[in-house]
Amino acid sequence: MKALLERFPGFSERWQAHLEYWDGEEAGLCNDVSEFGRYIRELVAGGETQALPAIFNFLEQLMVEGDSEVQDAVATCCLENLLNYFSAGAIPAESFVHLLGPQSRAYCRAWDEFTGVQTPGL
Average of pLDDT values for 2-30? Predict the structure, then answer.
């Protein structure tokens, strides 16, 4: 999470609120990464897209270079959530699908296949 906060300082306010919610308890990596997914959703919904290429490049880097725990958290707690936000009508798929790297895209395609959803652009 430190690397995330260093690269994306705009996430800091949401991160602080997340820490306060957990009141000093360990939230766990999945909850932490889910919070970053909510931050991405807010950026997309607010039309603040300038940071998205860097964000998705970093997510792809984590999918490729992260250990299995990091890869699982990014896949299941961020990418899946973004696809679910699309399915629920909260954000348009075209706002982020084109930014997915190869590993992220492959995971999202597999998630679509599993859920029976067809995300445009995948």
Answer: 95
